[in-house]
Amino acid sequence: MNIREFINTIKGYGLLNALIMELLRDNDAYNELSRYFVITNTNNDLFLRPIGIVKHGLNDDVVKSSPMGVDGLIEIFDEFIDGLRNIDGFSHLIIISLLNKVTKEQQKVLVVRPRRLVRFGIAANELPKIGVFATDSPHRPNPIGLSIVKLVNRDGRFLRVSGLDLFDGTPILDIKPYTPDRSVGINDLRTPNWYSALWKRIGGGVI
């Protein structure tokens, strides 16, 4: 069996993502992969290696249709467990993820409709077409996700959270605590007119 046949076999069993994640966790394999998957600039080399993975067992459609997100686990790989020291006690976490199901074609999209609002009952054709950087659409040049979740509890290297808007198996790139200095006071918060109008339609308060 040649390498192409091997890869097709792995894909056929739905194990390609699992194989990639295991390769990233193995130091020798990681060092080999980093020769090919690396961004070089004049100062240093950057290779974004996942520190963990999302686990909840739900299919993608359930996650997409959940207005407030779903409950689940963030599994942190063994070698990064020390990075969780003193994370207990924070109520919310900022999760940086790699949206690994976004296709190359979807990464080329620069104008979208803010479809997250469809979850709240607004029809897709009622949503304005706006620049992707004015939305949290997953279809963007660099498919990096930012989520704010509630930390329910921690069990070793497993973080039980609620409010997840990420698919099962999504690689996690980084975690940061959500702290008061990151908050924006309601009196300082402003949004464009198109967003304020839609927000009021779904029962949101005055912005």
UniProtKB/TrEMBL annotation:
Protein name: TsaA-like domain-containing protein
Family, per entry: Belongs to the tRNA methyltransferase O family.
InterPro entries associated with the record: TrmO-like_N (IPR023370), YaeB-like (IPR040372), YaeB-like_sf (IPR036413), YaeB_N_sf (IPR036414)
NCBIfam families with a match to the protein in the record: tRNA_TsaA
Keywords: S-adenosyl-L-methionine
Pfam families: TrmO_N
Organism: Vulcanisaeta moutnovskia (strain 768-28)
Database matches in PROSITE patterns: TSAA_2
Alphabetized SUPFAM superfamilies for the sequence: YaeB-like
Domain of life of the source: Archaea
KW Cell membrane (keyword) present: no
Domain TsaA-like: 48-187
